[in-house]
Write a structure and sequence with these properties.
The protein is built from ten helices and no strands. The protein is an all-alpha fold. Helix 3 packs parallel to helix 6.
Length: 207
Amino acid sequence: MSRCFAFVALVTVLVLIPGPAVILIMQKAVTTGYRGALRVAIGVLTADGVWAATAAAGVSAVIVASEPAFLALRFAGAAYLIYLGARLLLAPKDKLLPATPAESSAAIPASGTRAFRQGFLCEITNPKTLLAFTSVMPQFIPAGSSPWQPALLGVTFAVLGFVSLTLYSLALARADGILRRPRLARRLMRTSGGVLIGFGAALAADR
C-alpha cells in the first residue's frame, strides 16, 4: 500500500508539470472553448491507456530495449510537435481568432475529432511517457507480483493525467474572458507555436 501511495504522489507531480499536452489544451480552450480542450485530454487519456496495455504486456519494454524503435518514436514525436508549432506560427491571423460560443458549438464535430487526434498523437509519440511506464513504474511493482499490478498502475497514471488536464481545461475556460481577446489570443497562439517547436527540438536533441 505504501508503494501505491508513493506512486500516486510521484505521478501527481509529474502530470501537473506543464508539457506539450497543456499547450494544446490552452490552444483549444482559446479557439474552441472548454469542450475542444476536453477532447484533447480524452485523446491523451486514450494514448495513456494504450501505453498501459503495452506495458502490462511487456511490449513497451521491447521498444525501449530496441534503440532503432525508440529513436524512431522519439523523432516521430519531435516531428509532430514541430509540425503543430509551425502550423500555429504560420497560420493566417483570422485562423487564430477565438471562436464565438455559437461558432464553437457548430464546429464541435470536426474540431472535436481533430482535438482528440492531436491529443492522442501528442501522447502516443511521447517517449517520456513510454519511459515513465518502463522505467518509473516498475520501481513500484514488488517482485513476483501478479500481472494485473502493472496494469493497475498504468491505469492510475492515465487517470491522474486526465484529471490534471481536465483541471487545466476548466481553469483556462474560466479565464476565457481574458484569453479570448483577439490580440491576446493571437499572441498566445504564436507563443504556443514557438513553445511546441521548442519542445520538439529539445526532444530531438535529447540524449
